[in-house]
Amino acid sequence: MASAQAPARVALGSKTAKAGFANENEIAAKFNNWRSDADAGLWLAFMGYRAKDISAVSAQKPHGEKADIQVRVRTTAGEKIEGISIKLANIEQGFNQIDKRWLQQYAAKWKMPADIEAALKLFVGEVKPNKPSRNLERMFLIELTAEQQKRVVDFFTSKKAEIVSDLFRGDGEFSAGWMIVALKSSEKPRWVLRRIDHTIKKARSRSRVKEI
Fold it and tell me: 169 with 88, same domain?
Protein backbone atom coordinates (compact mmCIF):
# COMPACT_ATOMS: atom_id res chain seq x y z
CA MET A 1 0.00 0.00 0.00
CA ALA A 2 1.28 3.45 -0.85
CA SER A 3 2.09 5.55 2.19
CA ALA A 4 3.52 8.90 3.24
CA GLN A 5 7.32 8.70 3.02
CA ALA A 6 10.32 10.79 4.04
CA PRO A 7 12.39 12.24 1.14
CA ALA A 8 15.15 9.63 1.57
CA ARG A 9 12.64 6.78 1.29
CA VAL A 10 11.05 8.41 -1.75
CA ALA A 11 14.47 8.63 -3.41
CA LEU A 12 15.17 4.98 -2.61
CA GLY A 13 11.76 3.98 -3.97
CA SER A 14 12.39 5.93 -7.17
CA LYS A 15 15.79 4.30 -7.62
CA THR A 16 14.31 0.83 -7.01
CA ALA A 17 11.49 1.48 -9.47
CA LYS A 18 13.93 2.61 -12.17
CA ALA A 19 16.02 -0.53 -11.63
CA GLY A 20 12.86 -2.62 -11.94
CA PHE A 21 11.87 -0.94 -15.22
CA ALA A 22 15.37 -1.48 -16.62
CA ASN A 23 15.15 -5.14 -15.61
CA GLU A 24 11.80 -5.52 -17.41
CA ASN A 25 13.26 -3.92 -20.53
CA GLU A 26 16.25 -6.27 -20.38
CA ILE A 27 14.07 -9.39 -20.13
CA ALA A 28 11.75 -8.19 -22.92
CA ALA A 29 14.82 -7.65 -25.12
CA LYS A 30 16.06 -11.16 -24.33
CA PHE A 31 12.75 -12.66 -25.47
CA ASN A 32 12.83 -10.54 -28.63
CA ASN A 33 16.32 -11.96 -29.33
CA TRP A 34 15.25 -15.50 -28.50
CA ARG A 35 17.11 -17.07 -31.45
CA SER A 36 20.51 -16.00 -30.10
CA ASP A 37 19.80 -15.48 -26.39
CA ALA A 38 20.47 -18.63 -24.36
CA ASP A 39 18.37 -17.52 -21.36
CA ALA A 40 15.32 -16.80 -23.51
CA GLY A 41 15.71 -20.19 -25.17
CA LEU A 42 15.68 -21.91 -21.78
CA TRP A 43 12.65 -19.89 -20.62
CA LEU A 44 10.65 -20.76 -23.72
CA ALA A 45 11.55 -24.44 -23.33
CA PHE A 46 10.48 -24.36 -19.67
CA MET A 47 7.19 -22.79 -20.76
CA GLY A 48 6.59 -25.77 -22.99
CA TYR A 49 7.71 -24.52 -26.39
CA ARG A 50 10.01 -26.46 -28.71
CA ALA A 51 12.44 -24.26 -30.62
CA LYS A 52 11.77 -26.09 -33.89
CA ASP A 53 8.05 -25.23 -33.61
CA ILE A 54 8.55 -21.50 -32.96
CA SER A 55 8.35 -19.12 -35.91
CA ALA A 56 8.28 -15.79 -34.03
CA VAL A 57 8.49 -14.32 -30.53
CA SER A 58 7.77 -10.72 -29.58
CA ALA A 59 7.64 -9.11 -26.12
CA GLN A 60 6.04 -5.84 -25.09
CA LYS A 61 5.25 -4.04 -21.84
CA PRO A 62 1.57 -3.35 -21.12
CA HIS A 63 1.33 -0.15 -19.07
CA GLY A 64 0.27 -0.45 -15.44
CA GLU A 65 -0.83 -4.09 -15.58
CA LYS A 66 0.01 -7.09 -13.39
CA ALA A 67 1.92 -8.74 -16.24
CA ASP A 68 5.10 -6.66 -16.59
CA ILE A 69 5.64 -8.01 -20.07
CA GLN A 70 3.50 -9.96 -22.53
CA VAL A 71 5.29 -12.45 -24.74
CA ARG A 72 3.56 -13.37 -27.99
CA VAL A 73 4.74 -16.78 -29.22
CA ARG A 74 3.83 -17.97 -32.71
CA THR A 75 4.24 -21.68 -33.38
CA THR A 76 3.05 -24.28 -35.88
CA ALA A 77 0.04 -24.80 -33.59
CA GLY A 78 -0.95 -21.11 -33.58
CA GLU A 79 -0.27 -18.06 -31.44
CA LYS A 80 -0.34 -17.67 -27.68
CA ILE A 81 0.28 -14.73 -25.35
CA GLU A 82 2.14 -15.35 -22.09
CA GLY A 83 1.83 -12.76 -19.30
CA ILE A 84 4.94 -12.57 -17.12
CA SER A 85 5.38 -10.76 -13.80
CA ILE A 86 9.02 -9.75 -13.21
CA LYS A 87 10.68 -9.03 -9.88
CA LEU A 88 14.21 -7.85 -9.22
CA ALA A 89 15.80 -9.44 -6.15
CA ASN A 90 18.55 -7.66 -4.29
CA ILE A 91 20.44 -9.57 -1.59
CA GLU A 92 21.53 -6.39 0.17
CA GLN A 93 18.00 -4.99 0.28
CA GLY A 94 16.38 -8.30 1.12
CA PHE A 95 12.83 -7.55 -0.04
CA ASN A 96 10.76 -6.65 -3.08
CA GLN A 97 7.49 -4.79 -3.37
CA ILE A 98 5.01 -6.98 -5.27
CA ASP A 99 2.26 -4.42 -5.72
CA LYS A 100 1.71 -0.70 -5.21
CA ARG A 101 -1.72 0.87 -5.17
CA TRP A 102 -3.51 3.37 -2.96
CA LEU A 103 -5.42 2.01 0.01
CA GLN A 104 -8.78 3.04 -1.43
CA GLN A 105 -8.10 0.85 -4.48
CA TYR A 106 -7.41 -2.20 -2.31
CA ALA A 107 -10.43 -1.40 -0.16
CA ALA A 108 -12.74 -1.34 -3.19
CA LYS A 109 -11.31 -4.44 -4.86
CA TRP A 110 -11.24 -6.58 -1.73
CA LYS A 111 -14.57 -5.24 -0.35
CA MET A 112 -12.85 -4.00 2.79
CA PRO A 113 -15.14 -2.98 5.69
CA ALA A 114 -15.01 0.71 6.66
CA ASP A 115 -13.43 0.06 10.07
CA ILE A 116 -10.63 -2.02 8.51
CA GLU A 117 -9.92 0.73 5.99
CA ALA A 118 -9.91 3.33 8.79
CA ALA A 119 -7.38 1.29 10.81
CA LEU A 120 -5.14 0.84 7.76
CA LYS A 121 -5.26 4.58 7.02
CA LEU A 122 -3.52 5.04 10.37
CA PHE A 123 -1.05 2.28 9.47
CA VAL A 124 -0.01 3.71 6.07
CA GLY A 125 -0.06 7.32 7.23
CA GLU A 126 -3.05 8.62 5.27
CA VAL A 127 -4.38 9.67 8.67
CA LYS A 128 -1.93 10.92 11.29
CA PRO A 129 -1.60 8.98 14.59
CA ASN A 130 -4.40 9.66 17.05
CA LYS A 131 -2.21 8.73 20.02
CA PRO A 132 1.55 8.57 20.78
CA SER A 133 3.41 6.43 18.24
CA ARG A 134 7.00 5.43 17.46
CA ASN A 135 6.53 7.29 14.17
CA LEU A 136 5.04 10.79 13.89
CA GLU A 137 3.68 10.03 10.42
CA ARG A 138 1.93 6.67 10.96
CA MET A 139 1.01 3.99 13.48
CA PHE A 140 2.34 0.46 13.69
CA LEU A 141 -0.21 -2.35 13.72
CA ILE A 142 0.72 -3.28 17.29
CA GLU A 143 -0.11 0.32 18.33
CA LEU A 144 -3.73 -0.02 17.23
CA THR A 145 -6.31 -1.14 19.77
CA ALA A 146 -6.59 -4.88 20.43
CA GLU A 147 -9.97 -4.92 18.67
CA GLN A 148 -8.58 -3.13 15.60
CA GLN A 149 -5.65 -5.53 15.42
CA LYS A 150 -8.00 -8.53 15.60
CA ARG A 151 -10.30 -7.10 12.92
CA VAL A 152 -7.38 -6.45 10.55
CA VAL A 153 -5.82 -9.89 11.09
CA ASP A 154 -9.18 -11.67 10.74
CA PHE A 155 -9.94 -9.79 7.51
CA PHE A 156 -6.65 -10.65 5.83
CA THR A 157 -6.81 -14.24 7.10
CA SER A 158 -10.28 -14.77 5.65
CA LYS A 159 -9.32 -13.12 2.34
CA LYS A 160 -5.81 -14.59 2.05
CA ALA A 161 -6.42 -16.77 -1.01
CA GLU A 162 -8.15 -13.98 -2.93
CA ILE A 163 -5.60 -11.32 -1.97
CA VAL A 164 -2.51 -13.40 -2.73
CA SER A 165 -3.94 -14.36 -6.13
CA ASP A 166 -4.77 -10.74 -6.93
CA LEU A 167 -1.33 -9.47 -5.90
CA PHE A 168 0.60 -12.04 -7.91
CA ARG A 169 -1.65 -12.93 -10.87
CA GLY A 170 -4.08 -10.08 -11.30
CA ASP A 171 -7.07 -10.70 -13.54
CA GLY A 172 -8.40 -10.08 -17.01
CA GLU A 173 -6.54 -9.74 -20.29
CA PHE A 174 -3.25 -8.66 -18.71
CA SER A 175 -3.02 -11.19 -15.88
CA ALA A 176 0.28 -12.98 -15.27
CA GLY A 177 0.67 -16.71 -15.86
CA TRP A 178 4.38 -16.73 -15.03
CA MET A 179 6.89 -15.03 -12.76
CA ILE A 180 10.56 -14.35 -13.38
CA VAL A 181 12.78 -13.38 -10.45
CA ALA A 182 16.11 -11.84 -11.40
CA LEU A 183 18.88 -11.97 -8.81
CA LYS A 184 21.35 -9.21 -9.58
CA SER A 185 24.82 -9.51 -8.09
CA SER A 186 28.42 -8.74 -8.91
CA GLU A 187 28.50 -12.09 -10.64
CA LYS A 188 26.41 -13.14 -13.64
CA PRO A 189 22.68 -12.46 -13.02
CA ARG A 190 20.61 -15.53 -12.17
CA TRP A 191 17.05 -15.94 -13.37
CA VAL A 192 14.27 -18.10 -11.92
CA LEU A 193 11.09 -18.76 -13.93
CA ARG A 194 8.03 -20.37 -12.33
CA ARG A 195 4.35 -20.71 -13.11
CA ILE A 196 2.34 -18.11 -11.22
CA ASP A 197 0.23 -20.89 -9.63
CA HIS A 198 3.43 -22.29 -8.08
CA THR A 199 4.35 -18.82 -6.78
CA ILE A 200 0.87 -18.28 -5.33
CA LYS A 201 0.88 -21.68 -3.62
CA LYS A 202 4.21 -20.90 -1.95
CA ALA A 203 3.05 -17.42 -0.92
CA ARG A 204 -0.20 -18.74 0.57
CA SER A 205 1.68 -21.29 2.65
CA ARG A 206 4.03 -18.67 4.07
CA SER A 207 2.01 -15.43 4.17
CA ARG A 208 0.95 -13.96 7.46
CA VAL A 209 0.17 -10.53 8.83
CA LYS A 210 3.33 -9.26 10.48
CA GLU A 211 3.51 -6.92 13.42
CA ILE A 212 5.12 -3.93 11.70
Answer: yes
